């Protein structure tokens, strides 16, 4: 049996946790449960009231909705291309920042700047840069391309904006990983006659796998939920070519007041993101168990 | 260090989860059941930031109201038009706002979902005869009035006189859409501008507004008498073919499909376009030397005539009392002040009044001598977008298909047939 003093301290600790618990309850738990319940009802208004029970009807509707599949395709493309691009570029930037450079603090500060920009500002910035009439990109290239004028090109330009912003955070994660690799290991590889590429591929990358896995999990999940940059840069156009699942969910819930359907779409995102996270984490655990 | 055992953590988390479930099941009643209130106290009002009355205008109007009604305190808030609808929706259940500004396309949605109150009984009988017919439509749905009209607008044709003069084009040609094409070709051939026309054809409501104006001019209809989509026949198809052809012919700036009204204004004010459709506010902005390179060279005209007529798109907006307001009497009093004829006439430079006789008032005409006579003619002939409960969803499918045609991904007829199919299933749902 625990002494009275320890139990008293335990109660005090729980009391100190109370404000955080209330916040978590209010802004996470309650909306999560309420959205789940709403997804089983045919809620077609923001106003409270009694709505018909739909069971899994809203979930089935998503798979019967012809607009949902292109939206899913855009989201998958955005997620894969932006995550891969951010990983490759982030690795390059991390290697540069890890090299013995002068004014290292300055380069690190500069690299983190895009990530420090709010996504809304980043979206507005790139909307201007990509403007076909007076955008700086056409000025620089001496072209007259409507960068946001056709669906596929516009989707790729949104990816460029996302990559520009998020490569920094990927680079910093990988840089942290790189700094845990002892210089002696790389020096030994060089002494054994390994080329720079071979050293990178056979020594650095395997040791960086945990950092890469964490970055992949975070960026994939973030990319799958992309909304704000699309909202600002293209509004989902042209010809719905940049609509993602999160954007489509927002349209259904708030513009069309189909809150039941919107909630089901939101939970489909949760399920997809959860599955991706589980897959990556399992992969990470397998690697760790294999001692890689 | 104090150890909290796993059982405590699990019990706490389980308790929180159960509490969340119970709270969520309770339905979150919010403050949706409104009340007339005492007619005193505090009210909150939601307006839009851009176009029509400025924030400074609304602040002055509100100050005049509170000076005359010191027992009522008003807190106005402003959001971009693009965020207005969703803010009204999100704030609806909590009854955050007492007064909201709604677009002409929303009374059916908000009225049928009981988010705004029916104020038919509070209208003074003479308002129905003294207000412009198009203005009344901005607050009307199913024979009921859900607010009081406040902003009266349509899209006008703005022209750069200096450009026309350089190309030896006669401004009178702009009386018809065929004449607009003739003028645009002349401007292009003369090398005055690369693209004489720019439009707000981004995938947004702005695109439907431009399309509505052309559809009306060419004799098209959004819906037929039975309430089914009719824009995929006759004038509706001709209007879209006209729009696409101006891109193919190099008369329309290809940036149009990514432009909203503010982008159109920017390009026109930079002297990079000669003929554009836009709302009334652009006349003042384009003639303001501080922000426009073409100040003093801008003229405004009625929307051009097509084969059938020249209706302008109804771009009116109304002020409504929310269903969740706990102070509906004070809210209606405030609305009555803002929409009153004397108050609207004071700010006619920013937005034209909803009152018919205002257009003959010398003081009003004086505020904007070029625009008011055009508006007087234009506001008598307006085309209304469909008054459907799920208009937003219908508009979204129409916007996407219009863009498919404008970008050359589908022929106009096929794009509109596809849009009509989707719109009909939405209209039946």
From TrEMBL, chain A:
SUPFAM superfamilies: MetI-like (SSF161098). Its main location: membrane. Keywords: Cell membrane, Membrane, Sugar transport, Transmembrane, Transmembrane helix, Transport. It comes from the Bacteria. Residues 72-280 form the ABC transmembrane type-1 domain. It is found in: Cell membrane. The chain crosses the membrane at residues 12-33, 76-97, 109-129, 149-178, 199-218, 258-281. It is a multi-pass membrane protein. InterPro entries: MetI-like (IPR000515), MetI-like_sf (IPR035906). One of its GO terms (cellular component) is plasma membrane. GO terms for biological process: transmembrane transport. Belongs to the binding-protein-dependent transport system permease family. PANTHER family: BLR7065 PROTEIN (PTHR43005), SPERMIDINE_PUTRESCINE TRANSPORT SYSTEM PERMEASE PROTEIN (PTHR43005:SF1). This is Multiple sugar transport system permease protein/N,N'-diacetylchitobiose transport system permease protein. It comes from Kribbella sandramycini. The lineage of its organism: Bacteria, Bacillati, Actinomycetota, Actinomycetes, Propionibacteriales.
TrEMBL record, chain B:
Keywords: Signal, Sugar transport, Transport. InterPro entries: Bact_solute-bd_prot1, SBP, TAT_signal. Gene3D superfamilies: Periplasmic binding protein-like II (3.40.190.10). Transmembrane segments: none annotated. Coiled coil: none annotated. Signal peptide: none annotated. Belongs to the bacterial solute-binding protein 1 family. This is Extracellular solute-binding protein. It comes from Kribbella sandramycini.
């Amino acid at each position: 049996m625990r002494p009275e003093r320890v139990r008293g301290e335990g109660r005090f600790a729980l009391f100190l946790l109370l404000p955080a618990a209330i916040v978590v309850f209010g802004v996470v738990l309650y909306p999560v449960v309420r959205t789940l319940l709403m997804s089983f009802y045919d809620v077609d208004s923001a106003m409270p009231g009694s709505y018909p029970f739909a069971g899994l009807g809203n979930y089935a509707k998503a798979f019967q909705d012809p607009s949902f599949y292109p939206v899913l395709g855009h989201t998958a493309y955005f997620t894969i291309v932006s995550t891969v691009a951010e990983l490759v570029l982030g690795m390059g930037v991390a290697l540069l920042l890890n090299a013995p450079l002068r004014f290292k603090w300055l380069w690190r500060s500069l690299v983190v700047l895009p990530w420090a920009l709010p996504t809304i500002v980043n979206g507005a910035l790139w909307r201007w840069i990509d403007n076909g009439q007076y955008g700086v990109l056409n000025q620089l290239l001496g072209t007259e391309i409507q960068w946001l004028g056709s669906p596929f090109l516009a989707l790729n330009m949104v990816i460029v904006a996302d990559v520009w912003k998020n490569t920094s955070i990927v680079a910093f994660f990988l840089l942290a990983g790189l700094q845990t690799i002892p210089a002696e290991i790389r020096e030994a590889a060089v002494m054994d006659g390994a080329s720079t590429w071979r050293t990178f591929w056979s020594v650095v990358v395997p040791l960086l796998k945990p950092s890469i896995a964490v970055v992949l999990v975070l960026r994939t999940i973030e990319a799958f939920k992309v909304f704000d940059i699309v909202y600002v840069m293209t509004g989902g156009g042209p010809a719905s070519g940049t609509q993602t699942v999160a954007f489509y969910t927002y349209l259904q819930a708030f513009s069309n007041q189909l809150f039941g359907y919107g909630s089901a779409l939101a939970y489909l995102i949760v399920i997809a993101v959860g599955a991706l996270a589980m897959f990556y984490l399992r992969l990470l655990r397998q690697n760790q168990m294999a001692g890689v | 260090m104090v150890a909290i055992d796993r059982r405590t953590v699990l019990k706490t988390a389980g308790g929180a989860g159960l509490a969340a479930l119970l709270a969520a099941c309770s339905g979150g009643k919010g403050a949706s059941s409104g009340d007339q209130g005492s007619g005193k106290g505090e009210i909150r009002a939601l307006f839009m930031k851009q176009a029509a009355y400025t924030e400074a205008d609304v602040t002055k109007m509100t100050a005049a109201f509170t000076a005359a009604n010191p027992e009522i305190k008003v807190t106005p808030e402003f959001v971009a038009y693009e965020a207005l609808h969703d803010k009204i929706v999100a704030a609806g259940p909590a009854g955050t706002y007492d007064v909201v500004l709604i677009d002409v396309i929303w009374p059916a949605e908000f009225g049928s979902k009981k988010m705004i109150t029916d104020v038919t009984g509070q209208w003074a009988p003479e308002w129905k005869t003294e207000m412009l017919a198009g203005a009344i439509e901005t607050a009307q749905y199913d024979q009921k009035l859900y607010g009081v009209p406040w902003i009266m607008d349509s899209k006008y044709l703005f022209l750069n006189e200096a450009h026309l003069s350089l190309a030896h084009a006669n401004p009178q040609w702009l009386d018809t859409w065929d004449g607009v094409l003739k003028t645009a070709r002349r401007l292009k051939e003369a090398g005055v501008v690369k693209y004489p026309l720019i439009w707000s054809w981004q995938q947004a409501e702005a695109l439907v507004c431009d399309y509505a104006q052309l559809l009306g001019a060419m004799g098209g209809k959004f819906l037929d008498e039975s309430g089914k989509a009719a824009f995929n026949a006759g004038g509706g198809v001709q209007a879209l073919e006209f729009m696409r052809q101006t891109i193919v012919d190099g008369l329309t700036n290809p940036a149009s499909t990514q432009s909203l009204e503010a982008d159109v204004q920017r390009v026109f004010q930079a002297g990079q376009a000669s003929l554009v459709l836009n709302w009334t506010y652009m006349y003042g902005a384009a003639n303001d030397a501080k922000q426009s390179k073409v100040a003093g060279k801008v003229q405004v005209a009625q929307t051009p005539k097509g084969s059938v007529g020249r209706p302008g798109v109804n771009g009116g907006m109304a002020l409504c009392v929310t269903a969740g307001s706990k102070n509906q009497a004070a809210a209606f009093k405030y609305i009555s002040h803002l929409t009153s004829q004397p108050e609207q006439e004071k700010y006619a430079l920013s937005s034209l009044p909803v009152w018919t006789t205002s257009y003959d008032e010398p003081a009003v005409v004086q505020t904007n001598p070029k625009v008011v006579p055009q508006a007087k003619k234009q506001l008598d002939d307006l085309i209304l977008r469909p008054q459907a409960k799920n208009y937003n969803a219908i508009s979204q499918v129409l916007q996407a298909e219009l863009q498919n045609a404008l970008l050359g991904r589908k022929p106009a007829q096929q794009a509109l047939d596809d849009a009509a199919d989707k719109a009909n299933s939405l209209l039946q749902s």
